[in-house]
Amino acid sequence: MITSNIPKFIFKAPAVNLVQTCGMKFFKPPKQYNDVVIPEKPKLRFFDKVPQYPASIKPPKMQKKLKLMRGPELVHNTFLYKQYGIIATGGGRLRWGHFEMLRLRIGREMDTSRMFAIWRVDAPWQPVTKKGQGHRMGGGKGAVDHYVTPVKSGRVIVELGGKCEFLEVKDFLNDIAAKLPFKAMAISQEMLDKIKEKEISDEENNINPYTMKYCIQNNMGGCRNWLSPVDYKWFGKYH
Fold first, then answer.
1. Are 167 and 190 in contact (CB under 8 A)?
2. 1 has a pLDDT exceeding 90
3. Domains in the chain and their CATH numbers?
4. Max CA distance (Å), the chain
């Protein structure tokens, strides 16, 4: 008979009296949307692919004007209905196909009996020229190929509201934002307020004196040799 030298311990569980108590549970009442008014046409309206000019005016041509996409949006950066929407976090251009993608997807996903959506950007208006493939340089500016709408960082693209919560629309708004030609995100009014409060708080409570602005203004490490004129204006925050 083989005996083990491992000591054997006997554990006795303490006696526990399980007493079930019943009580009343108070759930948070659902949010009321008595102040929300659904417009007569809740869906996004159709935008023309080409802007309509009078018959006597020849369609004009324009330069690239990258300044229309650089820097922050200072006007259309808040919600009118204080609910939900898609906001750009980087600059870029919207083509007519992006407008159609937004219009069709949002119109298919939202419940028009209790939701509505509005545009916060203009229809394509800036002409983009292009020369045919294989053409030599010179010979003047090319013909107008298509029209775009320039967008700056912080611009509200689409606003969605109604008798709904953010969780109902968050998934398909994020899916749409990922398909745009620039960085964008689905956001609610509460999230937008927290982001702006955090930016102000970080700037006021920053204890590091060597900020990007300080380094550029004092040419620390000869950084001015590697900067563009845009960096002197926005100090590396916007490109």
1. no
2. no
3. 66-130+141-231 (3.90.1170.10)
4. 113
The length of the chain in residues reads 239
The confidence score (pLDDT) of residue 147 equals: 98
Sheet holding 143-151, edge to edge: 92-95, 143-151, 126-130
How many angstroms separate the CA atoms of 97 and 111, rounded?
Answer: 23
Question: CA of 114: how far to CAs of 34, 85, 169, 189, in Å?
Answer: 12, 16, 12, 19
Q: Find where tokens 């399980």 sit.
A: 18
Half-sphere exposure of 84 (CA within 13 A, CB side): 23
Q: Are 184 and 86 a contacting pair, CB within 8 Å?
A: yes
Structure tokens given for 189: 């009014």
- For residues 71 and 231, give the distance between their C-alpha atoms in angstroms, rounded to a whole number: 10
> In degrees to the nearest 10, what's the CA dihedral of 70, 73, 76, 78?
140
What are the tens digits of pLDDT across the range 139-180?
899 999 999 999 999 999 999 999 999 999 999 999 999 999
Residue from 64, 165, 69 nearest 121 by CA: 69
